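R.M. (postdoc): so does anyone remember the format we settled on? I'll just put the structure tokens first.
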């Protein structure tokens, strides 16, 4: 299965341009999917710096901050043992569309995606326990995987 997964609100709480609190079980579930041969692609609005389009400005000094929010997200995942099969791209070219191709999209903003409040002030994130249960119901995960 080809799975596209969002970053903010999905793998961690929303704190853009910073990285929020890690969503419980997110990394474990995605690593297990990759171990089982599924393809996992990062599908995010985070990007490499483009000061001509989206400058980050220090509000005290007015200086540009060339923050590479995409690389920070990739490094954060890599530090936790999660690699992706691609980033904001389809696994193979299906058309001239720039839309990311996947069989399943996991995104806190997707209609019907299960979310949970971590604790007061942290915000909502994808409920990866329910996502893991979904994969168990499909026969992808066993009880031992969970």
């Amino acid at each position: 299965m080809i799975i596209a997964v969002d970053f903010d609100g999905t793998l961690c709480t929303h704190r853009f341009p910073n990285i929020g609190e890690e969503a419980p079980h997110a990394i474990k579930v995605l690593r297990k999917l990759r171990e089982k041969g599924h393809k996992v692609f990062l599908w995010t609005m985070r990007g490499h710096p483009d000061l001509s389009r989206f400058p980050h400005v220090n509000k005290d000094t007015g200086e540009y901050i060339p923050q590479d929010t995409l690389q920070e997200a990739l490094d954060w995942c890599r530090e936790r043992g999660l690699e992706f099969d691609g980033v904001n791209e389809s696994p193979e070219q299906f058309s001239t569309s720039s839309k990311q191709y996947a069989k399943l999209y996991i995104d806190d903003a997707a209609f019907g995606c299960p979310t949970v409040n971590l604790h007061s002030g942290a915000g909502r994130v994808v409920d990866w326990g329910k996502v893991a249960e979904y994969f168990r119901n499909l026969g992808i995960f066993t009880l031992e995987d969970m």
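R.M.: ...and that's the designed sequence above, right after the tokens. Also worth knowing: Residues 54 and 66 are 10 Å apart (CA to CA). The chain is about 20% helix and 15% strand.
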